[in-house]
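Researcher: We're teaching a course module on how sequence relates to structure. For the next exercise, students receive a sequence and then see the predicted structure as tokens, so they can try to spot secondary structure elements on their own. Here is the exercise chain.
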Amino acid sequence: MLYWLTITIGERGARMARKLVLVKPDMGYAEEIGEYRKETLAGGGAFHGASGLYDYDDPAAWVEHCRLMERRETLPDPDWVTAEQFMLVYEGERRALGMINFRHYFNDYLAEYAGHIGYSVRPSERRKGYAKAMLRLCLDYAGRFGLDKVLITCRDDNEASRRVILSCGGVFERTAVKDDGEVMERYWIAVGPSAATVG
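Model: And here is the predicted structure for the students to work with:
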């Protein structure tokens, strides 16, 4: 589950390959999780795909919450669905570049408005291609998990997210309007063995 990103470093433009990977949060990332939350709050950024990190000022409590979400028998609420939380990092490094959440199945809300995957990028790391890299990694994981397609949504005024979804093979289905009037665009992306024929 690796996505390669080549970056330019050094005064002479020497090129170096670095691997972006998805990792599950644990207490080894406690300080970084706290910094990620602080920066996102200060920057007015979104916490999409972060398993409610907004509500947790204690990284240990959030890590435990993420673990509880992975199994039906430990879900904090019976109306919730099992899901896996990941952070995007460079292999061998600690800095969390983004958050992405993979939901194994749907409840009524997810089926209509949110889909299988939610994600967001750290405010200081935006416009660097990380959202696309993170989504590609998670799509690969979803295919190996056993899904053949995933549903992803974005607000109709979120052009950046729309471009990311389309670049990863998203096929527009329709819009869905929430009770508060927010309009969501629904996209399906093929994953697994058939993914190469879609997008």
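Model: If you want an answer key for the exercise: The first strand starts at residue 2 and ends at 9. Residues 1-14, 194-199 have pLDDT under 50 and may be disordered.
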